[in-house]
Amino acid sequence: MGRVGERVKKKRRKYLGKLANEDPDKFTIELNKRLESWAALAAHRAKASSVKELAFEMVTYVNNELLECGAIAQAVAKEIMIEACCAAVAYAYDGRMHNLTIRKENNPRIHIERLLRLYSDREQKP
Q1: What is the rounded distance in angstroms from the CA atom of residue 44 to the CA atom of residue 30?
Q2: Lower CB count within 10 Å: N or C terminus of the chain?
Q3: What's the mean pLDDT when you consider all of the chain?
């Protein structure tokens, strides 16, 4: 990636870090939007590649993107992305495997909302 791309990434990291510290509500909205996008990208990588495990590189990418947002945000995002990558790889290998991951207790959407609520609760406590 060139200098311009690196500069854009650096600005994005600073923006997310600033939001995490100054406006937790807006940060949860931004994080939710980005996590959905990153999960979709992981699913695309799992479908498009002959090596399905390349989807898990997104976990490292997301961890690096959220370096300035704090340990809690990184942990939440890491857990969400691991689940999304597992579902994407399972679906890419065999759609029937994906059915095991979309039961109500394993639904990624419900899990994302629960973890984001947990994150916002921890940020509000002194």
Answers
A1: 21
A2: C
A3: 79
